[in-house]
Design brief:
The chain is mostly beta strands. It has one domain: Jelly Rolls. It is 11% helix and 37% strand. The protein is built from 3 helices and 15 strands. It has a 15-stranded antiparallel sheet that branches. The structure holds 2-acetamido-2-deoxy-beta-D-glucopyranose (2 copies). The site of one 2-acetamido-2-deoxy-beta-D-glucopyranose has 6 residues, from strand 10. The site of one 2-acetamido-2-deoxy-beta-D-glucopyranose (NAG) has 6 residues, from strand 10.
Length: 291
């Protein structure tokens, strides 16, 4: 056991080795279009970006840098009106096999019907951890703040500073955790009318195209990651802070109250209670304290 802990510590230290912490946020400097850039655009000195979906293509951006731990913020105003069949995604992902991924996805709906906010997390290639929510505001009327806090002990999804979901590090109990590889930040708007709205029953109404989702003030208060390094090259960072702290810090009472309010009133799907789908073989983290 002691040697296992030591191994964890070494892996942890190695993961931190080539990070440098930074704060920034400008679409021109920090992101590029990886898809459909011809009809999407950045404006407002790099603070604003519109993703566009029309009959020719959707569009997407990705960060130039990869990060390992941090607080990744984006203000998003979703496609208004009849957005059925469209999906706007905002997520972190590593590349390659056994990838890690932390997701926010917004499934559009017919005019006046509520969006579904879909969340998921993949660790070393394993996903199937969906939780879905309705929102307590109209996400198309204005920009709202969707933030992913990610440190060595927990991932927390925030909407307007309200925590809606926590995924804790239970690595010592054999449950994967995203702490071995950097992830890039992605956002995209695409046609998913084969599944997104009522299981694909409602199709995109192209007479409403072009569809536009507004992104604003991308901000990665995060640690840059420069790729895997040998454990022998490592040194523990001189300044320990929230992003590198190995100690789980529980949400405060106020945050816990808000999280419970969202989950009691707005959560519409939780993989941890879908016994039928998993034949009663529930993911091990489901029986651990979730926050
Ligand atoms: C967005 O939410 C995060 C998490 O609560 C917060 O730290 C950040 O200051 C917010 N950003 C803006 C621009 O409101
Ligand atoms: C769309 O609206 C309908 C009716 O309110 C609802 O049942 C459904 O969950 C909503 N969301 C999606 C993505 O279909």
């Amino acid at each position: 056991m002691a040697s296992f802990k030591a191994l964890i510590a070494v892996v942890f230290i190695s993961a931190l080795a080539f990070q440098s912490c930074l704060v920034h946020g400008n679409f021109y400097n920090d992101m590029y279009f990886n898809w459909g850039g011809k009809h999407s655009f950045i404006f407002g000195n790099g603070d604003d970006l519109n993703l566009v979906l029309d009959k020719t293509s959707g569009s997407g951006v990705q960060s130039k840098k990869a990060y390992l731990f941090g607080s990744i913020e984006m203000l998003i105003k979703l496609v208004p009106g009849n957005s059925a069949g469209t999906v706007t995604a905002y997520y972190l992902s590593s590349t390659g096999d056994y990838h890690d991924e932390i997701d926010f996805e917004f499934l559009g709906n017919s005019s006046g019907q509520p969006y579904t906010m879909h969340t998921n997390i993949f660790t070393q290639g394993k996903g199937n951890r969906e939780q879905q929510f309705k929102l307590w505001f109209d996400p198309t009327a204005d920009f709202h703040n969707y933030t992913i806090h990610w440190n060595p002990t927990a991932v927390v999804w925030y909407v307007d500073s309200i925590p809606i979901r926590v995924f804790r590090n239970y690595e010592s109990e054999g449950i994967g955790y995203p702490n071995q590889q950097g992830m890039q930040v992605y956002s995209s708007l695409w046609n998913a009318d084969n599944w997104a709205t009522r299981g694909g029953l409602v199709k995109i109404d192209w007479t409403c195209a072009p569809f536009k989702a507004g992104l604003r003030k991308f901000n990665a208060r995060a640690c840059k990651w420069n790729g895997p390094v040998s454990i022998f090259q490592c040194a523990f960072p001189s300044v320990a802070n929230w992003w590198t702290s190995p100690v789980y810090k529980q949400l405060n009472w106020d945050q816990q109250g808000k999280l419970k309010w969202v989950r009691d009133n707005y959560m519409i799907y939780n993989y941890c209670t879908d016994y039928k789908r998993f034949n009663g073989q529930m993911a091990p983290e489901c029986s651990k304290p979730q926050y």
